[in-house]
Design goal:
The structure is a homodimer. Chain A is an all-alpha fold and about 210 residues long. Helix content of chain A is about 75%, strand content about 0%. The radius of gyration of chain A is 19 Å and the shape is elongated. Chain A contains seven helices and no strands. Chains A and B meet through helix 2, helix 3, helix 4 and helix 6 of A and helix 2, helix 3, helix 4 and helix 6 of B.
């Protein structure tokens, strides 16, 4: 039941979501914001493709735009799931920190629960990073090969996807120190660093002609 | 009737908003995305303040956090209004471009309508820029004077507000060339440039210690 309720942020009204976000409830927080920021950027890529497809002027890019649109839908789905995944993962971390710590056995169980929950809280934003990077690659593919009147929407998509990646990266790095498997934690840190560098390069390319 | 329907994006479900965004309807587009991206950043500032207020550890910053939270609510209201204002302004530009242009009189009327609509389509994102800059100033005020556990949410707020300003700036500059009053257009261009430079400096300060 709890899972079902929790997994419905995207079914909330925008106003209700913003009210919950600003409240003293610790979740949703920065992780959900990152995912929705990236989801908006991805939806903009789809809008640009949709307003290119079927136009005679861009006939030579028709196939590319259809393909990008379909791939962007997958990215969008992933990021919409990410809004909830991050919230749920965060709540598990909070629960773990709230566990009793009076006896040595309790302390050990709590530490173990924090380590497990931190792994989840690190992988959720890592998945968002990966999806948003794919989004940036798709935006890059449309540059110069889509409706010229909407190029500023491609620019905005790059701004949003890059902000998503930077924010999600912070959330990965906030959790990796508590992951027990140090080798895995370092792999995650390295991957998120690489994604973030690639994202800077990609959004730099996309925004090169923006004012 | 039209106005009422149009002014309700924030009353839509997130999923419905994203579906409309990705569709071949040209609005909502990048301007609405910029405003909602900034609104999320502002809501995060309020969350950080709300999770600081009442905590003994931060008693000395209680007043500051209450004040920042109340001011952030005004910024949030402005940005939520901005989601719709941008969409409406954009639709007026589209309508103007769709006007008949067979006779000289029609051409003149169309040109006049485009100039008037472009002014609206430039001032809507300019208002979003101003509000988001205020948001960044508020985030800066909370840095080091709010719940330390939530500092990464302040970082995310800076990322979102800066992305909002950069995107809104693009939308201002996309419209100013068509504004008839050239002096006003140049004032707008200068203001948005100044805001964007200040925003880069502010978010740089806020994110200085972020990984």
């Amino acid at each position: 039941m709890k899972y079902k309720e929790d997994s419905m942020i995207a079914e909330q009204k925008i106003n209700d979501y913003l009210n919950e976000l600003k409240s003293e409830a610790p979740a949703p927080g920065g992780g959900a914001v990152a995912a929705l920021t990236g989801a908006q950027g991805t939806a903009l890529i789809m809008m640009v493709a949709n307003l290119t497809i079927g136009k005679k002027k861009y006939a030579e890019y028709e196939e590319l735009n259809v393909s990008v649109r379909d791939q962007a839908q997958e990215v969008l789905d992933q990021l919409i799931r990410g809004i909830d995944e991050d919230k749920e993962a965060f709540e598990k971390v909070s629960e773990a920190y709230g566990m009793p710590k009076s006896t040595d056995a309790e302390k050990a169980a709590r530490r173990e629960a924090i380590a497990i929950a931190s792994l989840g809280a690190g992988t959720a934003p890592l998945a968002a990073c990966r999806a948003a990077r794919r989004g940036l690659q798709l935006a890059r593919e449309l540059l110069g090969k889509s409706n010229r009147n909407l190029v500023s929407d491609l620019y905005v998509s790059a701004l949003n996807l890059n902000a998503c990646i930077r924010a999600a990266k912070l959330n990965v790095l906030a959790n990796t120190p508590y992951i027990k498997d140090r080798e895995l934690a370092e792999l995650m840190e390295r991957e998120v660093q690489e994604i973030s560098e690639e994202a800077d390069a990609l959004s730099g390319e996309i925004l090169a002609d923006a004012k």
